[in-house]
Amino acid sequence: RTSPSRGQTGLQPRVPQVDARQGMIALLGSVEVVAIAPFCRDCDLAVWAGTHRAVSETLAADAAWRQLLLAHFGLALGCLSQSDPGGSLALAGGSRSSSAGSSGFGGSCSSSGSTSEGPPTQEAIVASLPCGTARKVYGLMQKTSSRPFMLEPRARLLLEIHELQDWDKHQQRLVLLRQAVHIAAAMGCKQAVEQLRLTMAPATLELVSLQAMMGGGGAPQLLEQSELEWGPSVDTKLRELMEKRLQRRRLWWQRQREYLMQDLGWH
Asked: 223, 204 in Cβ contact below 8 A?
C-alpha cells in the first residue's frame, strides 16, 4: 500500500448528481417561460406544460395568455383599435377590470394605457379584458374561420388571378374582423361589436360577388350565414359589385387576347 503524497488527503470529493431536467426547469423561471411562450404554437405549449408542474402553472396564468394574444393576434387587435377612435372601448373595459380588484398588467387585470383622446393601444385593449378570460378568448380567436366563404383548390381555378387576389384579401379581412368581435364581446362592449359587424358588410358583399362569379348562387343564404340581412340596399350594392366585376373580367380577357396576338405576331 502506498501512502498519499503530501498535500493529498486520499479522498475524492463527491460530485452531487443533478437531474438535467430539474436543472433546465430551474433555469427557466416564470419570466423566461412567459417570454418564450409567444414563439410557440398552442400545441407546443400543451406539450411544454406537461413537462413540469411549475411550467404548467405559469402557462395557465392569465398574464401569459394576454401576452400570447398580443403576439399572435396583433392584426385583429389593430382592427378593434381602429374601430374605436375615441378610446371608449379600453376605458369601459378597464373600469370593469379594475373594479374586480386587481392592478398591473402582469397581475392579469389593469386599465393602464387607455386614453379618451385617441384609439386605445393593443396593450390597453388586452389589459382591459376581464380577469380569467384571456385563455378562452385566445381559443375563440384561433377557431375563427371565414365560413361560409371557403374555396377548395379546384374552385380557385374558376377565378381569374386578380379575382383570387381580391378573394384572399377580403377573406383575411373578414377573419380579422370576426376575431376582433370576439375580443369586443369578451369585454362586454356591445357598441364595438355592432360597429365591427357593420364594418364586415363590405368584405362580405365582395366575397358574395366573387362566389357568384364562379357560378354559385344562394346569395341570400350566404348573407344569412354571415349574419348580414338581405334588403333592398344590400341587393343594389351587390348588383353594382357584380357589374363592376363583369366589366373588369371582360377587360382582363381582352388584354389577355391582345397579349396572345402580340406573341403570335412575333412568329
From this structure: yes
Predicted TM-score (pTM) of the model is 0.73
DSSP conformation letters of 240-264: HHHHHHHHHHHHHHHHHHHHHHHHH
Contact 113, 123 (CB under 8 A): yes
131-180: per-residue pLDDT in tens?
A: 989 989 999 999 999 988 888 888 888 888 888 999 999 999 999 999 99
Q: Match 386614453 to its residue by C-alpha cell.
A: 115
Question: Mapping DSSP to helix (H, G, I), strand (E, B) and coil, where does residue 210 land?
Answer: helix
Contacts of 40 (CB under 8 A, 6+ apart): 48
Whether the ω angle into residue 148 lies within 30 degrees of 0, i.e. cis, is yes
- Return the H-helix or E-strand segment holding 236: helix 232-265
- Closest among 184, 182, 223, 228 to 83, alpha carbons compared: 184
The DSSP secondary structure of 130-160, one letter per residue, reads PTT-HHHHHHHHHH---TT----TTGGGGS-
> pLDDT (tens digit, 9 = 90+) per residue, 62-113?
888 898 899 999 999 998 988 776 655 655 555 544 444 343 334 444 444 4
CB-side exposure of 17: number of CA atoms within 13 Å?
0
Three-state DSSP at 22 gives helix
Q: Quick one: angle between helices 53-60 and 62-72, nearest 10?
A: 60
Distance CA 181, CA 196 (A): 7
Please give the Cα distance from 231 to 212 (Å, whole number). Answer: 18
CA 20 – CA 201 distance, rounded (Å): 56
Closest to 141 in 3D by CA, of 223, 231, 74, 48: 74
* Phi, psi dihedral angles at 226 (to 5 degrees): -90, 10
